[in-house]
Amino acid sequence: MSEQFDFETLVDRRMQGSLRDSMTDPRLLEKGLPSFMAAEMDFPTAPCILDALRKRIDCGIFGFALCDKPYQDAVIRWMKMMRNWEIERDWIVPALGTIFSLSIAIRAFTAPGARVLIQRPVYDRYDQAIIRNERVPLDNPLILREDGHYEMDFDDLESKMALPDVTLMVLCNPQNPTGTVWKRDDLERLAELAVKHNVVVFSDEIYAEFCFLDEPVVPFAAIDAAKEIAISCTGLGKAFNFTGVNHANNLIPGAALREAFTTQRNRDHYGSIDPIAYTSVLAAYNSDGEWNRAVNQLVLKNGDLIRAFFRQYLPSVKVAPQEGAFTIWIDWRGLGLSDEQLFQLLEDKALIQTNHGSEYGNEGRGFCRMNIATPTVEIEKALQRLLEAAREAGLTSGK
Q1: Is 88 exposed, middle or buried (0-12, 13-18, 19+ CB in 10 A)?
Q2: At 31, is the pLDDT very low, low, confident or very high (cuts 50, 70, 90)?
Q3: Which of 20, 52, 93, 112 is most exposed by smallest CB count within 10 Å?
Q4: Angle at 322 between CA 316 and CA 323, to 5 degrees
């Protein structure tokens, strides 16, 4: 399937004002090597979007865009096709991105100084949004099992949901950075606790198109018991390599919750849908999904290469089960290295730049998150550099 799309050519990002390039080690840029940090793919978005944008540019009109019937129909179609979820058109509440949406929820459903539940290791921008809105992150740490899977600590979660100032929780599904996809049983138990303690759950589901299980990601707002307290935040950002266009759709079944969220959104001076986002949503969500399935195949292939490498040469290094997202979570603690030694090996010796696990909380020390939505040949070359560096350090087994 992936043969019809070019996933093997690195795109030149120079002179594009790339945030990712600004964070990339200059040694990599000089050598034309990709960075494996920051969750952006290394190839262009889907051809259907590019074709639609060319037509939009030829039209030359970039005025205000509405959440109108064609837009709603596209979102409804995509949710049914890709997530097996039938939604109503009035559930769709556009906003200017995932973290912007989270900030709306923080201001709408918590008081200044209140605590907001998160589950570390987790995306560090949640902390940032909570703190910038003058609230306090409250951690319900995930439990790492012996087999590399993560699970929720429901006893700890309930004790913290019961605190009087806790009225909002941030869920990430698929979970960033671990790649865990929360199953229906997990979500139903979470919904039961949230309803019991009157806690709103903001569920970040922007990686949901990347799911490698037999069933699609279950949207939290699709759980019957959660409908009055759930916000499922979706968008093109990760699914179509569209992170720089600030846009998201918040799917909110509960009428009272939706009204409160929309009121706060409008207080925050939300105007209209970005016309680039409008055109792109219609093109993407009316497509057949073949591009997304092809990207999934590439990500699985790259993940298989990495796991095979570690099994052969560095068996004490463990890769988390690849359930969702296009990043993988690698546990290096078996090497017995400090974080400083680990990233000296990766970055200085092997020229492999990833996100340090500590970015996601203390629970991430000794880990890294690696973006693998990149040409397979770049994964192969990076693993060869790592093999040479590990051999030089006396860390390898195998031939």
Answers
A1: exposed
A2: confident
A3: 112
A4: 145
Pair of tokens at residue 375:
């040409």
Look at the chain and count its residues. 399
Comparing CA positions, the residue from 266, 285, 273, 282 lying closest to residue 63 is 273
Q: Does 66 share its domain with 128?
A: yes
Classified as helix, coil or strand, 168 is strand
User: What are the φ and ψ backbone dihedral angles of 137, each rounded to 5 degrees?
Assistant: -65, 140
Extract long-range pairs of 146-149: CB within 8 Å, 24+ residues apart: 147/321, 148/318, 148/319, 148/320, 148/321, 148/331, 149/180, 149/320, 149/321
Per-residue pLDDT band at 168 (split at 50, 70, 90): very high
Tell me the C-alpha distance between 364 and 223, whole Å: 30
Max Cα distance, the chain (Å): 62
Q: Give the integer Cα–Cα distance in Å for 383 and 395.
A: 14
Helix (H) or strand (E) holding 328: strand 327-331
Residues 256, 229: contact at Cβ < 8 Å?
no
Cis link prior to 216 (omega < 30° from 0)?
no
Instruction: Tell me the C-alpha distance between 40 and 127, whole Å.
Output: 21
Pairing of strands 230-234, 200-204: parallel
Write the DSSP string, 66-132.
Answer: ---HHHHHHHHHHHHHHH-----GGGEEEES-HHHHHHHHHHHHS-TT-EEEE-SS--HHHHHHHHH
Boundary of a domain, candidates 264, 285, 306: 285
Q: Could you give the CA distance from residue 280 to residue 347 in angstroms, rounded to a whole number?
A: 36
Distance CA 389, CA 351 (A): 10
Which of 269, 285, 301 lies at the terminal end of a domain, its last residue?
285
**Rounded to whole angstroms, how far apart are CA atoms 303 and 197?**
39
293-307 average pLDDT score: 98
pLDDT tens for 312-328 read 999 999 999 999 999 99
- Please check whether residues 12 and 54 belong to one and the same domain: no
214 CB-near residues (< 8 Å, 6+ apart)? none
Q: What is the DSSP string of 193-232?
A: HHHHTT-EEEEE-TTTT-B-SSSPPPPGGGSGGGTTTEEE
Alpha helices in 268-375 (DSSP H): 275-285, 290-313, 339-343
